[in-house]
Amino acid sequence: MPLVQVRIDDRLIHGQVVVGWQNVLKPQRIMLCSDEVATSDWQKTIYMSAVTSNISASVLTLKETIAVLLSDQVKTERILLLVDTPKSIVDLVEAGVDILEVNVGGMHFRAGKNQIAPFIFVDDEDIAQFRRLHDKGIKLEGRDVPTRTPIDIARALRFEAV
Questions:
Q1: Which of 65, 66, 75, 157 is the most exposed place for a label (fewest CB within 10 A)?
Q2: DSSP, residue by residue, 65-100
Q3: Which of 14, 44, 139, 148 is catalytic?
């Protein structure tokens, strides 16, 4: 599968993605997976406007993302996949999408969330979803920008070794 990065970032497409990660990963397509954004024309327009003209972009529902990633449609593309929650990654994996590593780029403060890194705040649901991913052997790396030293999310959450 042509996923050059699978990234959780509650801001989805923004400067760190378009400037920082795009320059390092050199994806051919940014694929934003969000039921909320995919069903809102104005949100889609806003996010798509942040993507530079030299790269393709797609905004898809979770169901559409699964269908596209499991098809032959994108087998030759380098894809940066963006989601806003760990639950979305669990849903993708359980549907058969092969994901070996997840970059956690930004889960920002909200009521009820606790900080585990400068740019990562989690609640019990997030922790449960990270645990499910960890138990499947998926590497969880916290890093908002390519130049930052990665944070081992499993270690930050004190999960036992797989």
A1: 75
A2: HHHHHHSSTTTTS-EEEEESSHHHHHHHHHTT----
A3: 14
Domain 3-156 class in CATH: alpha beta
Q: What does residue 124 show for φ and ψ, rounded to 5 degrees?
A: -60, -35
For the chain, domain boundaries: 3-156
pLDDT in tens, 51-69: 888 899 999 999 999 999 9
* Residue 147: CB atoms within 10 Å: 8
Put simply, whether the predicted model's pTM sits higher than 0.85 gets the answer: yes
Q: What is the DSSP letter of 107?
A: B
Taking Cα atoms as reference points, which of 80, 90, 82, 74 lies closest to residue 107?
Answer: 82
114, 158 Cβ separation under 8 angstroms? no
Evaluate whether 123 touches 27 at the Cβ level (below 8 Å). Answer: no
Q: Which two tokens stand for residue 148?
A: 């930052």
Active-site annotation holds for 108: no
Instruction: Give the residue among 88, 106, 89 at the shortest CA–CA distance from 98.
Output: 89
How far apart are alpha carbons 130 and 110 in whole angstroms?
18
- What residue type is 39 in one-letter code? T
